């Protein structure tokens, strides 16, 4: 696809004003149309979101895990920043109040299977079940309704590993598949200081992009205030992604 064509179906609007005038804030909202934009993230796919230089999308995988997710949420709230959380269905079932809190605080909830398997290594029917069970668990935690039709049709493969048949299935259902443009490698053992250095150096080199973190990682929760401060001090702007046609945030989060 040509870069210009990719922008079709992506609508930007001003983000809500932040009461703290010195906060990083959320600079704008991108409404993503899955028909136009089925797959994003240069680590996995040929295209990514149409971000300007120094624009970033913050994403978090594998939650919710209250001890650390709560710290990540607090850091984001302090800077009036909105992110996207790709939830594991099993964890959503165990911590429904944290799922509701993520949504209530204005973040986007995407899906990350039910039990985080290697999707390319299991039969198609089992992979489809993992997708559906994960969505249903997230929706039950969020809205009290078990449905395989996601209220936000965003999905990320565990380990960024999926088959063409699985990609085709998600595309046929109008579900955007998220990869990433860079990541913090927070699944590796390292100190918070090492993680902060690694991700800021990668961001400085790329200049923009979809960033992957894992909110259950204590080292990631520990660096989030400093990382957001780095963004603010170095002229980066945070873009919040939502599904095309999504209702206003917080409408269903109680």
Automatic annotation (TrEMBL):
Entry GO terms, CC: membrane
MF term (GO), any: hydrolase activity, acting on glycosyl bonds
SUPFAM superfamilies: Glycoside hydrolase/deacetylase
InterPro entries from the UniProt entry: Glyco_hydro/deAcase_b/a-brl (IPR011330), NODB_dom (IPR002509), Polysacc_deacetylase_ArnD (IPR050248)
Residue span, NodB homology domain: 54-239
Keywords: Carbohydrate metabolism, Glycosidase, Hydrolase, Metal-binding, Polysaccharide degradation, Xylan degradation
Pfam families: Polysacc_deac_1
Entry's Gene Ontology BP terms: xylan catabolic process
UniProt function note: Is involved in generating a small heat-stable compound (Nod), an acylated oligomer of N-acetylglucosamine, that stimulates mitosis in various plant protoplasts.
Family named by the database record: Belongs to the polysaccharide deacetylase family.
Protein name: Chitooligosaccharide deacetylase
Source organism per UniProt: Bradyrhizobium vignae
